[in-house]
Amino acid sequence: MLDEAGNDPAGLPGALAHSYLDRWDRLSAEDPLAALIRSALNHPPSAQQLSELLERLVTGPLRGVLGESPEATARIGMIRSVLFGVIMERYLFAHEPARSVPTADLEPLLADVLAAAIGTPAAGAAGPTRPEASPATDADTRAFAALTDCADRYRSLIGRVVKRHGIGLAAFEVLAELSRAPAPHRRTMGELAAAGAVRAGGMTQHADRLERAGLIERERDDRDRRIVYLRLSGAGRELVDRVAEERTAAERELLDGLGVDERRQLRVLLGALGATLADPPDPA
User: Fold this and answer.
1) Could you report the per-residue pLDDT of 168-179, keeping only the tens digit for each?
2) Which domain holds residue 166?
3) How many whole angstroms separate alpha carbon 178 and alpha carbon 96?
4) What is the Cα Rg of the chain in Å?
5) Torsions phi, psi for 244 (to 5 deg)
6) How confident is the model over 70-82, as pLDDT tens digits?
7) Burial class (CB in 10 A: 0-12, 13-18, 19+), 95
């Protein structure tokens, strides 16, 4: 990580953000490090072991870059808190919205936060002056900002609908993907991850919770006992149907402010944009 930053504090925020997100995106839920962090919450010996591990893997290398002054010590403590908070919220507990933010979107934001903690300029804060955008470019930027805002608000709304039933949005997406599978509505965890229902590293955790809630059942393949399927239970199917009804009602409310012609125009425009995104132009 420090090699990637070139032992330069200015390059450290981006290197830290990339290194941690990449590592945890690829980390299995059964990895010993994840298990150690979970057990540290209520097991003092594990907490001590975790503290020593962080001291060796995080604090020590950061001191080599930032020094050992009281200010550097405070900054290192803040960096550890930021990184540890992201790990807990996004990967271990799968809290929303942290869980669902794409890594490509989260990485520069995390780098900016780390830059503030380290005391270096945020990415893009220094460097050549950007050419002034044309009015058309500004309008396009505002259009995409509005589109992103609407998508975020919609996802937040659906998250609240799902939360009323005692599960998170990421866990519900597992149920929804199983409901779309052909009868008997089952998939392997690998198939669910490939379909984008949830990141592979968090699949086992979601499956365990959903099984305990009686919303899914685990069953082995009749011909190959090594293959384990997650199958939607009757209670899971009922929950998916109830959420679908509430979701439809919420979507109607969102569109109540638009007339028939405006809705038709919105569908046409979003369809055209979707077709463009399906085959994006070469950025070069």
Assistant:
1) 888 888 898 899
2) 136-278
3) 21
4) 23
5) -60, -40
6) 888 888 888 888 8
7) middle
